[in-house]
């Protein structure tokens, strides 16, 4: 007699409900956890918000759409708005994958594909850390879905929506040219693609995308990318060995990102071997060969091309930045699997999936609470950004009678002060002025600023490099801030000083 867990029966009877329960649960958890337990923005989010706050956001940062949206979300609802924006991107990605899978393999297998994505997000996609990769993930999934409808359903008006989403992708990520280039090649090399592209709407969409692609090339050039630098690097001795090692590291990182998915697939396929019978099979109609080609192409080819581009340019890809390349991984497993999927280890499989969803949610607060006691260290998300921002903004205002407009010094601390201060001061990136081109040493002398640095004791003297960079600085006694969890850590001392506005000296 078969034992069928409730979640498997729900997959068979109400796949759409299972999809929405899983997707909304993941999104809700990763809005709640950072709001309750993060005292500071995770990853590079504080820097992204500091750059996005610039009134003259320049093209030297690369494609700017994620910065614009983050600034809008932060102005509307603070960090909650940014965390919510990130999860909206996750939900949009899952919805597009589910809709695409429903077209190819039916709703039950499409729901399976999206459930498998939890095994990727647990290891590779820190979703609260909003940025270009998170937004590009959603836009790339939407681009693929619209392209499928345009060529398979022959909905000619969809080409206009495809062009709009592709244009947004081009002003979101440096890798957009790889994604859209693959679509162009696929269109030319397949009979269905050529037939669907031979319409007026498709040509209009192509013209719009090409125009935006040229603009993307300009953005890449102004952000520092140059084919000449790549060519010169290839001529250096030992480049081949270094490139091979870099490519292997990238490949290992991508495999690691799929660790949770591989675990779920192994359990579902009956590993480790057991005499327990599988649950009744979840069946579908045979998958069209064109759908198999489509999924294999866009699940694998962008990763290979990106790895080559990164190796040749000498750049690296942080694990979280790989999110757009993992969009079709779950769907690829399902499409390439059997038309009748029998799930083994039903109970363990359900627990493993729940663990991949919940363990990171439990792990992060636990580490924040235990790390200061066990290792005398803390996560960056445990630094009290709001308290720091409020103190330095009030201190500057009391001394000068003006709101704090600029904060500089140690970049990480300055970014946290800028996020936590009620009036959103700008960050002075003196070592990389392209991030904030409207602020210069002259601006600081005119408007004044607070300069911050990590301090080891109560000695007010700034480090030598700070004093050299800011000769007008008037240092103050370092201020101690309460940590959310003190543990065995020393007091959090922040050295600081004020540069008074020019008309008050």
Could you describe the 3D structure shown?
This protein is an alpha/beta fold and 505 residues long. The chain folds into two domains: 17-272 and 284-365, no CATH class; 383-504, no CATH class. Helix content is 62%, strand content 6%. The protein is built from 19 helices and seven strands. It has helices at residues 6-13, 15-37, 45-52, 65-124, 132-152, 158-170, 176-189, 191-197, 200-222, 227-234, 239-257, 259-268, 289-313, 329-336, 346-374, 385-400, 411-420, 441-447, 464-469, and strands spanning 282-283, 340-341, 406-409, 426-427, 449-454, 474-481, 492-499. It has a five-stranded mixed beta sheet with strand order 4-3-5-7-6. Strands 1-2 form a two-stranded antiparallel sheet. Helix 17 (411-420) links the parallel strand 3 and strand 4. The longest helix has 60 residues, at 65-124. It is globular and about 75 Å long.
Q: Could you describe the largest sheet, including whether it forms a barrel?
A: 5 strands, mixed
Helix share bin = 55-70%
Total DSSP helices: 19
- Tell me the total number of β-strands: 7
Through-space gap between termini: 87 Å
Poorly predicted sequence stretches spanning 5 or more consecutive residues = none
Beta fraction of the residues? 5-15%
Task: Identify the overall geometry.
Answer: globular
- Overall number of structural domains: 2
Q: How much is the radius of gyration in Å?
A: 26 Å
User: What value does the average pLDDT take?
Assistant: 88
Sheet with most strands: strand arrangement: 4-3-5-7-6
Q: Which structural class fits the helix and strand makeup?
A: alpha/beta
Report the order of strands and helices: HHHHHHHHHHHHEHHEHHEHEHEHEE
């Amino acid at each position: 007699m078969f034992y069928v867990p409730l979640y498997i029966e729900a997959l068979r009877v109400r796949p759409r409900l299972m999809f929405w329960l899983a997707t909304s649960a993941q999104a809700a958890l990763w809005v709640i956890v950072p709001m309750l337990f993060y005292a500071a923005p995770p990853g590079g989010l504080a820097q992204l918000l500091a750059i996005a706050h610039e009134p003259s956001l320049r093209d030297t940062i690369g494609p700017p759409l994620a910065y614009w949206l983050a600034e809008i979300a932060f102005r509307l609802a603070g960090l909650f708005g940014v965390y919510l924006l990130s999860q909206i991107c996750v939900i949009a990605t899952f919805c597009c994958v589910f809709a695409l899978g429903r077209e190819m393999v039916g709703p039950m297998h499409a729901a399976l594909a999206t459930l498998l994505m939890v095994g990727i997000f647990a290891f590779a996609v820190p979703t609260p850390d909003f940025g270009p990769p998170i937004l590009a993930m959603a836009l790339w999934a939407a681009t693929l879905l619209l392209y499928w409808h345009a060529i398979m359903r022959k909905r000619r008006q969809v080409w206009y929506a495809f062009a709009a989403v592709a244009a947004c992708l081009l002003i979101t990520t440096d890798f957009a040219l790889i994604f859209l280039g693959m679509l162009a090649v696929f269109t030319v090399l397949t009979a269905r693609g050529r037939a669907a592209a031979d319409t007026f709407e498709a040509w209009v969409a192509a013209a719009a995308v090409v125009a935006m692609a040229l603009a993307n090339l300009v953005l890449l050039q102004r952000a520092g990318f140059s084919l000449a630098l790549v060519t010169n690097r290839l001529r250096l001795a030992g480049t081949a060995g270094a490139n091979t090692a870099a490519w292997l590291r990238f490949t290992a990182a991508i495999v690691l990102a799929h660790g949770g998915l591989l675990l779920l697939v192994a359990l579902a396929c009956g590993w480790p071997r057991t005499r327990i019978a599988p649950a009744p099979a979840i069946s579908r109609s045979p998958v069209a060969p064109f759908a198999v080609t489509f999924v294999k192409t866009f699940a694998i080819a962008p990763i290979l091309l990106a790895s080559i581009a990164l190796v040749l340019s000498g750049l690296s890809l942080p694990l979280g930045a790989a999110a757009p390349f993992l969009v079709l991984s779950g769907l690829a497993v399902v499409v390439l699997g059997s038309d009748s999927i029998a799930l083994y280890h039903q109970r363990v499989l359900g627990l493993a999936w729940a663990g991949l969803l919940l363990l990171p949610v439990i792990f992060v607060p636990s580490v924040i609470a235990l790390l200061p006691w066990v290792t005398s260290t803390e996560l960056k998300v445990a630094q009290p950004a709001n308290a720091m921002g409020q103190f330095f903004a009030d201190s500057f205002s009391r001394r000068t009678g003006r709101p704090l407009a600029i904060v500089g010094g140690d970049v990480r601390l300055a970014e946290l002060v800028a996020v936590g201060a009620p009036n959103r001061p700008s960050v002075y990136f003196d070592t990389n002025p392209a991030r904030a081109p409207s602020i210069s040493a002259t601006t600081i002398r005119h408007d004044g600023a607070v300069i911050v640095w990590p301090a080891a004791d109560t000695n007010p003297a700034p480090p030598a490099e700070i004093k050299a960079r800011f000769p007008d600085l008037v240092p103050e006694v370092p201020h101690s801030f309460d940590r959310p969890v003190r543990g065995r850590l020393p007091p959090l001392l922040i050295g600081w000083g004020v540069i008074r506005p020019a008309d008050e000296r």
